[in-house]
Amino acid sequence: xxxxxxxxxxxxxxxxxxxxxxxxxxxxxxxxxxxxxxxxxxxxxxxxxxxx
Length: 52
Description:
Blueprint: H1 4-51
């Protein structure tokens, strides 16, 4: 049976891993949304060029 400090250490490791995964997901979705916004903007400017 693991002692209390070992359990606490495992819990801290788990929390760190989960927070890393969450932050990675956030940065990934943020990068994706930025990429889509940029592509939308370039598409809009493309249409504007055709209008003029």
